[in-house]
């Protein structure tokens, strides 16, 4: 992954590739040659609907999925290291934005926890 250095790179993207989606969870699977990043969007309303008093699944009851895979990406280890370096640089350059966002999220989490 080049850090936007190749301005002459001719690319094509269809509608699906250009769609932006939030991901709440990132799962990582790896072996010696590659890393797979799976980005998942959670459905909190399904989690609430699936909650029951009994722990095991009830026979004959269909549960709603509580998450959806929005994207999967596979990269080599050297590629992952380049991505890490680019993200670290971005975080350093945008440190005040990162801190403000983290404080907002943590403030929101504390407010939610206090309502329980």
- Would you identify the regions where 5 or more consecutive residues have pLDDT less than 50? 111-116
Taken as a percent bin, the fraction of beta residues is: 15-25%
Series of H and E elements: HEEHEHH
What does the main sheet amount to?
Answer: 3 strands, antiparallel
- How would you state the average pLDDT, rounded? 81
- Strand order within the widest beta sheet: 1-2-3
Number of domains: 1
Number of strands: 3
Helix content: 40-55%
Structural class: alpha+beta
Q: Give the number of helices.
A: 4
Rg, Cα atoms, Å: 19 Å
Which labels suit this protein?
3-stranded antiparallel sheet, alpha+beta, disordered C terminus, 116 residues, single chain
Could you walk me through the main structural features you see in this protein, from its secondary elements to its overall organization?
It is a single chain. The protein is extended. A hairpin with a 3-residue loop joins strand 1 (25-30) and strand 2 (34-42). The chain has helices at 15-18, 44-50, 77-93, 95-115; strands at 25-30, 34-42, 67-76. 42% of the residues lie in helices and 22% in strands. The protein has one domain (15-115). The chain has 116 residues and is of the alpha+beta class.
């Amino acid at each position: 992954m080049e850090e936007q250095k190749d301005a002459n790179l001719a690319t094509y993207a269809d509608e699906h590739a250009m769609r932006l989606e939030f991901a709440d969870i990132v799962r990582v699977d790896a072996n010696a040659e590659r890393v797979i990043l799976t980005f998942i969007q959670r459905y909190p309303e399904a989690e609430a609907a699936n909650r029951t008093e009994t722990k095991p699944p009830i026979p004959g009851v269909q549960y709603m999925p509580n998450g959806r895979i929005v994207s999967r990406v596979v990269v080599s280890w050297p590629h992952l290291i380049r991505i890490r370096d680019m993200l670290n640089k971005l975080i350093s350059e945008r440190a005040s934005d990162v801190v403000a966002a983290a404080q907002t999220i943590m403030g929101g989490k504390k407010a939610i926890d206090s309502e329980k």
